[in-house]
Fold this protein.
Amino acid sequence: ASGRADAIAAGSDGYIYVLSADESRVAKFDHDGRPAGEISARPAGANRKLGTEFAVSNGLLFLMDGDGLTLHVVGTDGKPKLDADLAPQLGQVNRFVPPIAVSPRHELFVLDAPNSRVFRYRLNF
């Protein structure tokens, strides 16, 4: 295992989350930088791999698949919540992994930079 960090996000719960996409895991750290757990975020399906974009909000991790088309939602307890196909909006072809963000108003934003668009999804969790 490489242990390489690909992305970092601060959760509203006070923890810092660090994504290791190659290992399909998210390490959780407390405000003093001490390890506070690890979350397996392995996408279902053969040859699936996480991308390097993710966000954290309200006890949920929002992780983009390496295909750039599938959003995985996993609880900070490690339980899978949802796999959502965003291909109808983003296109059917494998592509770059788009940046994502979650707002305090329970909205997920997906940046489709090549087409100069931002998609907004209402979160109902």
In short: The first helix runs from residue 87 to 90. Residues 6 and 52 are 6 Å apart (CA to CA). The chain has a mean pLDDT of 90.
